[in-house]
Structure formats: C-alpha cells, structure tokens
Design goal:
Blueprint (H helix, E strand, L loop, with lengths): L2 E4 L4 E5 L10 H7 L4 E5 L16 H11 L3 E6 L1 H12 L3 E7 L17 H13 L1 H13 L5 H14 L5 H13 L13 E6 L7 H10 L3 E6 L6 H4 L1 H13 L3
Parallel strand pairs: 2-3, 2-4, 4-5, 5-6, 6-7
Antiparallel strand pairs: 1-3
Helix pairs in contact: 1-10, 2-3, 4-5, 4-7, 5-6
Length: 253
C-alpha cells in the first residue's frame, strides 16, 4: 500500500474517501505539513495503490496501515472514516480520531434516521457495471453539491480522480459494500480516545445532524460544523478545517 510521508512533527494519518486517493488532501498538506508529519494513504485499488490487491475490508486495511505508520492521530474523510474509526477502536497506537464528513453508519435505519437510503449505494453499484465513468462523475457531483464553492470543488475532484489513474472497479465495489453494510456505532461508547467530528453544513451524503448524533455517543468528543461546507469541506474551507485539526491535536499533549 502506498503511503506518502510529508512534513515533520506529531504524526497524522489521513485516509481518503471512495474513488479518490491521498492527493485529495493537498489543501490540508499546504496548511499542516510545517507542523505535522502527514501520512497520506492511497487505499488498495486507488491512486498509487491501484495494483494492491489487499481486500478493502476494515481489519485488512487498518492492520496494513498501522504496520507502516508510527503512533498517530488518524483522520478519515467519508469512507476513510470507517477505517479510522475501526483503528481508533482497536489499536493502541491510534492516539486520537478525527472524522471529516464521516459517520459510523452511512445508511438509514429505524434508529438512525440522519443518513442516506440503502438504495443509494445499491444503485451506485449497479450503475458502475454499466457506466463506470458516468457513475464516478455523479458521485463527485454529490461530493461537491451544496457547498458554496461547489463548482470549484467539483473541478478539483475531477482533476484529482484521474491524477493517479482511475481506481480499480473491484475496489470501488468493495468500498460501496463497506458503505452499505458497516455499522460501527457500537464502538463509540467505549472509545477511550478523544475524537473530533467535522461536518459540512450542506453535505448531501453525511448530514451534520448525523455526525453530531455520532459524536454524542462517544466520550471526549467534539463536533464542529463548517458553515456552507459540502461533503469535502477541506477543499472549499481548508483554513477552517486545518485550524480545527490543529486545535484538536494541540489539545492532546
């Protein structure tokens, strides 16, 4: 698995979302690499890890990342949040957890209303087989939708998608299954580490209300809503997201 290491200081592991790669965090790298040692993960089947056939499942990926990184704060965006949360709940070397537009459960249930309908991810899976590039384009549009900088963010995401080669179809299907089936809410009450929950106020995939509900399940949790932010708030509101991360990490020492 490809993990790019930049900067110096306390270690911060960054895990990207569905279909993208570690390069998507460039705005945060610009703002954080002078203070932190950043470990930018390309998940198996994505970016420079496109040929990595490690199954895109929580224990497999988390153990591989942990073996290649020092004790650190783990930060996950969207799908990446599932890996970061699983690691925080199971690995002592994870000092703290930061979730960006991520939730322990992405699909709606009777006791979890602030999420998307299961049919959304099921439809994406069906569409991938018929129109691979069109499906990715629709997903990127959802990432940017609602943000006050939507057009600029969508352009950045489109450029980033192909910057390291298109993701492997197998990995995309495995990622969708994770989003459809994973429920990590049970890990939150016993999470013995501080956590930061950064939500986009206008996020169409992970609602700010859902993230606040998740944060309420965990001890030592802090939730922050990025006003006018969409599903990728670190693109259009990089200064605010970086500042929140800096304050969070500084409070750990």
């Amino acid at each position: 698995m490809h993990i790019e290491v930049l900067g110096q200081g306390p270690a911060l592991v960054l895990i990207h979302g569905w279909a993208l790669h570690g390069g998507v965090f460039a705005p945060l790298v610009d703002r954080l690499s002078a203070q932190y040692q950043l470990h930018l993960v390309d998940l198996p089947g994505h970016g420079h890890s496109r040929e990595d056939t490690t199954p895109l499942r929580l224990p497999h990926v988390v153990n591989a990342i942990a073996a290649a990184t020092p004790p650190a704060v783990w930060c996950g965006w969207s799908l990446g949040g599932l890996f970061a949360l699983h690691a925080a709940a199971t690995l002592p070397q994870v000092r703290a957890l930061a979730m960006i537009a991520a939730t322990p459960r992405f699909v709606r249930a009777d006791d979890w209303r602030h999420a998307v309908e299961p049919a959304v991810f099921e439809q994406f899976g069906q569409d991938l087989a018929q129109d691979y590039r069109g499906t990715l384009e629709r997903f990127l549009a959802l990432d940017a939708m609602g943000s006050e900088h939507a057009r600029q963010e969508l352009r950045s995401l489109r450029e980033m998608l192909v910057a390291r080669g298109e993701p492997a179809p197998r990995a995309l299907q495995e990622g969708l299954r994770l989003l459809e089936t994973t429920d990590l809410r049970g890990a939150l009450p016993g999470l013995g580490k501080p956590s930061l929950w950064l939500a986009g106020q206008r996020d169409r995939l992970v609602s700010a209300t859902g993230m606040q509900a998740a944060a309420a399940l965990a001890p030592a949790a802090h939730a922050h809503v990025v006003a006018h932010g969409g599903h990728a708030p670190f693109l259009g509101h990089a200064d605010e997201v970086a500042t929140q991360l800096q304050h969070f990490v500084a409070g750990l020492s």
